Task: inverse folding
């Protein structure tokens, strides 16, 4: 199991205040990583970090809006100042607006694209600069979605953003591979968590239909995204880059 051991590695994880990000922070800490989490609310990010420290692991919370390049750079450098290096970046923070495409304003479209695709690029760019300064490479893991490969009603900008994330993974993997930087994504399917109240209501309403169409006959628990992310960040995936790993219970296989 040493291949999956992250002991001593410094992992920056974005969007750790709730949901899958919070689960990833706990999961990476349990795998041995030193976790640096962030959110647009320092108090919420610190709550997660405090939970991790209470379990005997090392964790730091930082305030960051990852749609801003200066915040992304400050996030990475904050981790380096505290712990001396960076080994892993997990791009997880995101945003969504659920409504018919015909009704989207330009500002709403920019919010969804910016909060997902732009934010991932900016944090990956800041991390890659640090990896190059250090030498020896590093691992970048992005939380994408099965909405990157299948269309969903009322989620057009989100689908476009996540499709962009998948292509971002491939492009960055190709460009940064010679420097030892691996870039991969895991793509959750329906999970017992949604970024919006509308999404949560839909999950409750459509649960039976979703389960019937999913080969594993259930939706995922947030905790089940930890394994794919840890795998992609670890030495177990040392020759894996540019990969889009669907974690959707087989939903996209049908």
Result:
């Amino acid at each position: 199991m040493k291949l999956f051991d992250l002991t001593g590695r410094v992992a920056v994880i974005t969007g750790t205040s709730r949901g899958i990000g919070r689960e990833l922070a706990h999961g990476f800490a349990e795998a041995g990583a030193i976790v640096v989490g962030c959110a647009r609310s320092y108090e919420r990010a610190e709550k997660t970090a405090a939970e991790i420290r209470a379990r005997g692991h090392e964790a730091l919370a930082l305030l960051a809006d990852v749609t801003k390049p200066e915040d992304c750079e400050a996030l990475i450098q904050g981790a380096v100042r505290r712990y001396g290096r960076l080994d892993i970046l997990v791009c997880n923070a995101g945003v969504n607006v659920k409504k018919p495409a015909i009704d989207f304003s330009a500002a709403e479209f920019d919010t969804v694209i910016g909060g997902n695709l732009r934010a991932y690029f900016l944090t990956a760019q800041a991390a890659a600069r640090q990896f190059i300064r250090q030498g020896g490479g590093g691992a970048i893991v992005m939380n994408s979605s099965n909405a990157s490969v299948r269309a969903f009603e009322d989620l057009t900008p989100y689908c476009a953003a996540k499709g962009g994330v998948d292509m971002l993974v491939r492009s960055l993997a190709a460009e940064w591979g010679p420097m030892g930087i691996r870039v991969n994504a895991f793509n959750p399917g329906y999970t017992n968590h949604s970024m919006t109240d509308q999404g949560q209501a839909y999950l409750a309403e459509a649960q039976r239909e979703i389960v019937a169409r999913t080969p594993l006959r259930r939706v995922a628990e947030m905790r089940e995204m930890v394994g794919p992310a840890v795998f992609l960040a670890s030495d177990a995936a040392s020759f894996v880059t540019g990969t889009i790993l669907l974690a959707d219970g087989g939903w996209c296989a049908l």
